[in-house]
Write a structure and sequence with these properties.
This protein is α/β, with parallel strands linked by helices and 453 residues long. It has one domain (4-452): Glycosidases (TIM Barrel, Alpha-Beta Barrel), CATH 3.20.20.80. Helix content is 40%, strand content 14%. The protein has 15 helices and 15 strands. The strands form four sheets. It has an eight-stranded parallel β-barrel with strand order 2-3-4-5-6-8-11-12, surrounded by five helices. A three-stranded mixed β-sheet has the order 7-9-10, with helices on one face. α3 packs parallel to α5 and α14 (377-395) packs parallel to α15. The structure holds beta-D-fucopyranose. Residues 17, 20, 165-166, 169, 222, 299, 359, 406, 413-414, 422 line the site of beta-D-fucopyranose. Beta-D-fucopyranose binds at residues 17, 20, 165-166, 169, 222, 299, 359, 406, 413-414, 422.
């Protein structure tokens, strides 16, 4: 195959998040987060681990920047731990927390790496949780105070801001399914939390612009193409509902369409709305949530195969039988074509001004071999397949401006602890030694040539 060249200004980067890599959970005045609390609760994390130390990035950030520079990465997406900045969530500012990120940003800029900052990647201050957390509107107000503090401090140097990472996870996976902190299992709370996350996104946009001139602001969503086995009428309804639950519930309000009416009706009919309506919505919320954004961040990993619930329940269920593709260690199907389908859909249906893939990558356990190298061929193939599909999407007009690989290094994979390795760099958790995997060396070449072969 001939070389596929990417546009001249296309940005190649890697991504991480604060709780997953920083460690130093109690250092320099940092407050407790809901992930500290959750991971310290027995039974919540599959291997009983936590992010107390993680990749010790809080102390090793200089080396990590040097590594990124060596790999030729042009951009770095990381998140800020809110409880480092405001240990109680609101009120007193912890200057040491600000200093840490300020040094990190300076270090990146010196290395010629563009910082993309995510304001919220799930580590809510426990103090805000104690006041009701995201299901309470107060969290959205507190987020604005935090956003104001951070963007005042870093807005002169950071010009790419992401308000939230994956509000579906922070809202529903965390409050309805209960797999993530704070581990609730309450549909209504999940929808209320999602609402306040989206609302706080919308409220934050003008605050960021005020404090960070000429900055780009966007939100990152986890999105999936949804499909089914046999296209019966019931199964197609299942596809529509699942799409509404994961994708449209978040895309529609961000793009000015309010919540999808079919989903509101489905939730009401299923008895999930005690008042029979979305009573957490206040006048003006939809206008705020639809604030103009400069880009959409897309996290893409896989597709979802669903079917109508054979037990007659109101919501779709996963269709394992028809999910037949090769899988990563997370159990997620490898489906590069889905990235093409998704990007095209977003472009044709929602017309975001610009798109960045803010996460894409794969979990494979490949460890250093006798030669000391990590031959993660499957990760390289996974990335290559997805890069090609991103290129194809650009050829039909999708305004894709950059691509961030998840993740720079192996790290704490939430409820899966350290059992999943997503890094292009191997981390030895005993010694904290980092070894760039074969995929990292391959990516280095892709970036140098700005092309995939
Ligand atoms: C996404 C998260 C990220 C990482 C990847 C594997 O949902 O944003 O932190 O855990 O999945």
């Amino acid at each position: 195959m001939s070389k596929l060249h990417f546009p001249e200004k296309f940005l190649w980067g890697s991504a991480t998040s604060s709780y997953q890599i920083e460690g130093a959970w109690q250092e320099d005045g940092k407050g407790e987060s809901i992930w500290d609390r959750f991971a310290h609760t027995p039974g919540k994390i599959i291997d009983g681990s936590n992010g107390d130390v993680a990749c010790d990035h809080y102390h090793r950030w200089r080396d990590d920047i040097a590594l990124m520079k060596e790999l030729g990465l042009q951009a770095y997406r990381f998140s800020i731990a809110w409880p480092r900045i405001l240990p109680q969530g609101v009120g007193v500012v912890n200057q040491k927390g600000i200093d840490f990120y300020s040094r990190l940003v300076d270090g990146l800029l010196e290395a010629g790496i563009t910082p993309f900052v995510t304001l919220y990647h799930w580590d809510l201050p426990q103090a805000i949780q104690d006041r009701g957390g995201w299901p309470n509107r107060f969290a959205a107000e507190a987020f604005i105070e935090y956003t104001d503090v951070v963007t005042r401090a870093l807005g002169d140097r950071v010009k790419h801001w992401i308000t939230h990472n994956e509000p579906w996870c922070a809202g529903l996976l965390s409050h309805q399914i209960g797999e993530h902190a704070p581990g609730w299992q309450d549909w209504y709370a999940g929808l209320a939390a999602s609402h306040h996350l989206l609302l706080s996104h919308g409220w934050a946009v003008p605050v960021i612009h005020r404090n960070s001139s000429d900055a780009e602001v966007g939100i990152t969503l986890n999105l999936y193409p949804i499909t089914t086995g046999e296209r019966t009428s019931e199964n197609l309804t299942a596809v529509r509902l699942y799409d509404g639950y994961f994708n449209r519930w978040f895309l529609d309000p961000v793009y000015g369409r309010r919540y999808p009416a079919d989903m509101v009706e489905a939730y009401r009919k299923a008895g999930l709305l005690p008042a029979g309506e979305l009573d957490f919505v206040v006048e003006g919320d939809f206008e705020a949530m639809a604030a103009y954004t400069d880009f959409l961040g897309v996290n893409y990993y896989s597709r979802s195969v669903v079917k109508a619930d054979p037990k007659g329940g109101p919501f779709p269920v996963g269709d394992e039988e028809n999910a037949t593709l090769e899988r990563t260690d997370m159990g997620w199907e490898v489906y590069p074509q889905g990235l093409y389908e998704l990007l095209c859909r977003l472009h044709f249906e929602y017309q975001p001004a610009k798109i960045y893939i803010t996460e894409n990558g794969a979990s494979y356990a490949d460890a250093p071999g006798v030669d000391g190298k990590v031959h993660d061929t499957r990760r390289r193939d996974y990335l290559r397949g997805h890069f090609i599909k991103a290129h194809e999407a650009m050829a039909v007009g999708v305004p894709l401006a950059g691509y961030f690989v998840w993740s720079l290094m192996d790290n704490f994979e939430w409820a899966r602890g350290y059992t999943q390795r997503f890094g292009i760099v191997w981390v030895d958790y005993e010694t904290q030694v980092r070894i760039p995997k074969e995929s990292a060396r391959w990516l280095q070449q892709v970036i140098a040539q700005n092309a995939v072969e």
